[in-house]
Amino acid sequence: MWTSNEMIALYIAVGFCVVTVVAWLVLGRTIRTRLKMEKTVRDDPDINDWLVVFDWTPKVLYIPTIVASVLASVLIFLKGTGWPVIGSINPEIIGGVWFAVFFVNFLVEEYNISIKILLIAIVSLGFFLLWLHLLGWVMDFLRLFKHLALSVSATGYLLVGIIGLMTILISWLKGLFFYVTITPNYMNLQEGPTETGEQIGREDYNSRVDTSDFLERLLGFGRIIITFRDRKREPISLLVWRIQQKAQLLERVRGKFAIDFQQQSTIQ
Question: In this structure, what is the dihedral angle of CA atoms 194, 198, 201, 202, given to the nearest 10 degrees?
Answer without folding.
Answer: -80
